[in-house]
């Protein structure tokens, strides 16, 4: 991973609005997100009214904020009608001032987009799309449970490029049977279609997924540690050479092409989450509040209609919880963290002995500006580095 300084370090992370649309056409076997398949059409009007109600509730808790980013995630938000997306954006603008250059992202699957729908999203106010491509060959797409072909994915990327100034797409690597040469060719093909951003995720087995059950039954074998590391290394090599270095452990961008919404999370800014299973972090007079909503869509809907919101978690985080989250999120970034921010949040310094030991092992380093960041060698074992620093 090539690490470069960021010109906007220390700036306000901004205030974001996350909108969760929980429905998918099918459930991918690797996915542990809050997504649900429904045989009958979703009642858009009823859900829209509930989204408006939750927005009104959160607006009462976040007066004075200016929205700098909006993100429609899921699930599959590209199953939403453009008119529904537009109505939600209108509601957001009615509750908060929206920055003139606010980033408005919508996640889409290649199987659920076509030209008129994309144009409809753009007319509604979406200015960035993120496509779940995941692989560029049909056998691996089938193994990942995806409903699109590689050609459909590439057509969707080309369509996004023709309509939106900003777009991104995802790929998953370290897949069963994947070779370094095969991934190199696939990634180079992807970069030829990328503009300013790519998300490249190493496949992990998540709790409760079909892939977990297959692995435990001996029917799914992932690349071993050495091969996984080689795939990681070639990912960093190719993206850096192409001018898309990692600014976060799994996200690559040209300067200025970073996802502003995700940077709010990673820089530990404020954001609200509405919709089933959404999370938020906001500041209040009593401290940083952690929000989570009811995850099951129909239960969420009934709760909002009954109470005006569906929060099932609304608690003040302790200084220790905040500082742990700050480390967990901030050390994902190539820019690292400001130690003084950790100290102000936690009431203690980072353990100088642990920091010195990790520096000696080549896992972390100080930047010329005095920030601490995980090194290129440390990123493949990020979780262990963060756990060591947080201890």
Q: What is the compact description of this entry?
A:
This protein is of the alpha/beta class and 391 residues long.
Number of strands: 16
Give the total of domains. Answer: 2
Question: What's the CATH class label of the largest domain?
Answer: Alpha Beta
Q: What series of H and E elements makes up the topology? A: EEEHEHEHEHHEHEHHEEHEEEHEHHHEEH
N→C terminal distance:
26 Å
Widest sheet: strand order? 9-10-8-7-6-5-4-1-11
User: The biggest beta sheet, please?
Assistant: 9 strands, mixed
Counting DSSP H or I runs of 4 or more residues, the number of helices is 14
Category by helix and strand content: alpha/beta
Give the overall pLDDT as a whole number.
94
Beta-strand share of residues: 15-25%
Shape descriptor: globular
Radius of gyration: 21 Å
Summarize the amount of helix as a percent range: 25-40%
And the CATH topology of the largest domain? TIM Barrel
């Amino acid at each position: 991973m090539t690490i470069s300084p960021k010109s906007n370090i220390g700036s306000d992370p901004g205030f974001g609005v996350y909108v969760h649309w929980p429905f998918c056409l099918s459930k991918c076997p690797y996915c542990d997100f809050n997504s649900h398949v429904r045989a009958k059409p979703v009642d858009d009007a009823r859900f829209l009214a509930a989204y408006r109600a939750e927005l009104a509730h959160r607006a009462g808790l976040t007066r004075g904020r200016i929205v700098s980013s909006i993100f429609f995630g899921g699930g599959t938000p590209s199953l939403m009608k453009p008119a529904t997306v537009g109505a939600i954006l209108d509601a957001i603008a009615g509750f908060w001032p929206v920055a003139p250059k606010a980033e408005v992202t919508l996640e889409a699957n290649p199987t659920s987009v076509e030209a008129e729908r994309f144009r409809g999203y753009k007319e509604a106010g979406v200015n960035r799309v993120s496509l779940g491509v995941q692989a560029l060959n049909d056998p691996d797409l089938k193994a990942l449970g995806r409903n699109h072909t590689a050609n459909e994915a590439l057509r969707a990327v080309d369509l996004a490029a023709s309509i939106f100034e900003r777009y991104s797409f995802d790929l998953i690597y370290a897949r069963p049977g994947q070779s370094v040469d095969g991934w190199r060719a696939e990634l180079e093909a992807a970069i030829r279609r990328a503009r300013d951003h790519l998300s490249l995720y190493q496949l992990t087995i998540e709790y409760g997924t079909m892939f977990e059950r297959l692995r435990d039954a001996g029917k799914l074998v992932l690349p071993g540690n050495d091969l996984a590391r080689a795939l990681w290394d070639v990912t960093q090599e190719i993206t850096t050479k192409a001018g898309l270095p990692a600014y976060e452990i799994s996200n690559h961008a040209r300067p200025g092409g970073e996802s502003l919404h995700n940077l709010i999370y990673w820089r530990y800014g404020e954001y609200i989450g509405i919709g089933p299973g959404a999370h938020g972090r906001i500041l209040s007079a009593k401290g940083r509040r952690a929000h989570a909503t009811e995850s099951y869509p129909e239960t969420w809907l009934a709760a909002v209609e009954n109470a005006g919101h569906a929060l099932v978690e609304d608690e003040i985080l302790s200084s220790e919880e905040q500082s742990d989250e700050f480390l967990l999120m901030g050390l994902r970034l190539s820019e690292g963290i400001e130690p003084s921010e950790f100290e102000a949040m936690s009431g203690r310094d980072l353990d100088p002995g642990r920091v010195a030991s990790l520096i000696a092992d080549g896992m972390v380093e100080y930047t010329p500006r005095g920030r601490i960041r995980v090194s290129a060698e440390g990123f493949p074992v990020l979780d262990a580095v963060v756990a060591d620093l947080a201890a």
